[in-house]
Design a protein that fits this description.
The complex is a heterodimer of chains A (262) and B (237).
Chain A lengths: L3 E4 L5 E4 L7 H4 L14 E2 L6 H7 L18 H4 L6 E8 L7 E6 L5 E6 L2 E5 L7 E4 L9 E9 L48 E6 L2 E13 L4 E12 L5 E14 L2 E3 L1
Antiparallel strand pairs in A: 1-10, 2-3, 2-4, 4-9, 5-8, 5-10, 6-7, 6-9, 11-12, 13-14
Chain B lengths: L2 E8 L3 E6 L3 E4 L15 E9 L3 E10 L4 E5 L6 E5 L2 E3 L3 E4 L10 H13 L4 E4 L8 H10 L2 E5 L22 H15 L5 E5 L8 H10 L14 H6 L1
Parallel strand pairs in B: 9-10, 10-11, 11-12
Antiparallel strand pairs in B: 4-5, 6-7, 7-8
Classes of the chains: A mainly beta (262), B alpha/beta (237).
């Protein structure tokens, strides 16, 4: 398989967790939802929010049109379970013997459990953190993988007082999450508090050694005549043997499309 | 000068941190905010090849050479910015997020941010009650020359203000806050447009969080104003 990242941004399905009687293990082994979906499953907005998925399926009116937001039930009244959703997709991945595969979530609001081919991984709470799951050993031998994610809303979604107000009852501030969702002087409350897989999901294939979070910094001397680029990266050797590596950095300037100066 | 390879051995099942010897540039094209010059971006590519296997991983980024400094003006209490040594008259827009349902497509970011540039703005402030914005947001701020003032997630919801009174001690889990902050910094730190991290909206976070953020985000002494460097520090650079 080629080295690199593949986004999982299409073909997702979703269902309200209380409408699904199956476990994550069953969903990702013997009883995956059918495609095209039948109720309670629906096409999902990933990346996006539960409310975005409901709107995509015309199950709620557009909250930003007129005063339609008033007709959507708030999580304080519905309970957190109402906006707790399963998300499901499939993907193909067939790494070779020396390759390793990470499933990456760039952000989830607020916590989740991931099931891949019957194996469970917990994604802890926090709206602004990445999750990396090494799935090399749990990929399906036939290359077709079943992925289900149950996403839980913030722990403290709070309640909006009848008079509204800045940030509702402020409960959302107890979590590490966006706080505008309880409403502000310029904004109506967001009914699901932005619950969902709200940023990129991807599968990343590497060889034994993986590059992690490079850091680039420049320093300047002599009125910007002499400039240095400082670069640092973490490297992880996932193999069980000493890796002899050649690490290369190259800086190019694009003169025209596809013509670069090195 | 701008291509360098290093051989290294990495023990099994382990992580190492590696710093390249600095790459030298003579009079590189600089990155400027909207209205002050071009937003020149270089392609930086890092690859790792493993002997006997070949390419193992690669990483790329559009990097802009720029030096951003800011200080509080003692006369006015306002914050003054300089980019590449030149003072900037800040014309900023306040930003929460592009869409309340978080339909944050690249196309949408491009349109929104270009609109700010077309309005002759040169800064966007990401309010603490909204998001730590996404890499695509920062990419287009790099491309269109919008400096970004990024706040962490502290507002009247967690500082003891408001009615009813909010928890005065920030989010319940301070370690989680710092974990998210550190991960966010790693996600965004290489963008040319990233100008300033701010603890929260119109206030400082609880003391322990504020101290940790200030400590973690402190500029390394080697990158302080070059005039203040000793000869030995310059040699290290």
């Amino acid at each position: 398989a080629p080295i690199g990242k593949t986004k999982l941004d299409a073909g997702w399905l979703a269902a309200r967790s209380t409408d699904v009687q199956l476990t994550g293990v069953q969903l990702t082994t013997t009883h995956p939802p059918s495609s095209p979906p039948s109720p309670p499953w629906m096409e999902a907005a990933v990346p996006g929010t539960v409310l975005g998925t409901l709107l995509k399926n015309k199950l709620v009116p557009d909250p930003f049109y007129g005063l339609k937001n008033e007709t959507i039930i708030d999580i304080a009244d519905s309970g957190r379970e109402y906006y707790t959703f399963w998300f499901f997709t499939t993907f193909s991945c067939s790494p070779s013997g020396n390759q390793h595969v990470d499933l990456q979530f760039r952000a989830i609001n607020y916590s989740a459990e991931v099931y891949l081919n019957g194996h469970k991984k917990v994604l802890p709470e926090g709206m602004f953190r990445r999750h990396f799951v090494d799935i090399t050993d749990i990929l399906s031998p036939d290359g077709k993988n079943l992925l289900a994610v149950i996403v839980h809303p913030p722990d403290h979604p709070g309640r909006i007082p009848p008079e509204g107000g800045q940030g509702g009852d402020h409960e959302i501030g107890k979590d590490v999450a966006a706080q505008y969702v309880e409403g502000w002087d310029w904004m109506a409350p967001i009914r699901d508090r932005n619950t969902g897989i709200w940023d990129e999901v991807s599968v990343s294939i590497t060889g034994p050694v993986k590059i992690i979070d490079p850091h680039l910094v420049s320093s300047f001397f002599d009125n910007f005549k002499r400039v240095y680029l400082h670069s640092t990266a973490e490297l992880e050797n996932k193999s069980s043997w000493l890796a002899n590596c050649s690490l290369t950095i190259q800086v190019t300037a694009e003169l025209e499309e596809n013509i670069c100066l090195i | 000068e701008h291509l360098q390879s290093q051989e290294l051995k990495i023990p099994p099942k382990s992580r190492v941190q590696y710093t390249f010897p600095p790459l030298f540039f003579y009079k590189p094209e600089l990155w400027w905010p909207n209205g002050m010059g071009k937003q020149f971006l270089y392609n930086v590519e890092i690859t790792v090849d493993v002997k006997g296997i070949g390419l193992s991983d690669s990483w790329g980024h559009k990097f802009g050479f720029r030096k951003i400094e800011s200080t509080i003006d003692t006369a006015t209490g306002g914050r003054l910015f300089k980019v590449n040594g030149q003072p900037v008259f800040i014309r900023g827009g306040n930003w929460i997020l592009s869409d309340g349902l978080l339909r944050l497509s690249e196309k949408r970011y491009k349109t929104d941010i270009r609109f700010h540039a077309d309005m002759n703005f040169n800064m966007i402030r990401c309010w603490g009650g909204g998001l730590a914005e996404r890499p695509e947001f920062y990419h287009y701020c790099d491309v269109y020359g919008l400096l970004v003032w990024q706040e962490f997630w502290i507002t009247g919801d967690c500082d003891g203000r408001g009615a009813p009174i909010s928890n005065p001690n920030g989010p319940l889990d301070h370690d989680l806050f710092l974990l998210c902050a550190r991960d966010t910094v790693k996600l965004l730190r290489n963008h040319a447009s990233l100008a300033l991290w701010v603890g929260g909206n119109e206030q400082t976070p609880p003391d322990d969080i504020n101290t940790a953020l200030k400590d973690d985000l402190r500029l390394h002494s080697l990158f302080q104003c070059c005039n203040e460097l000793s000869t030995s520090e310059k040699d290290i650079l």
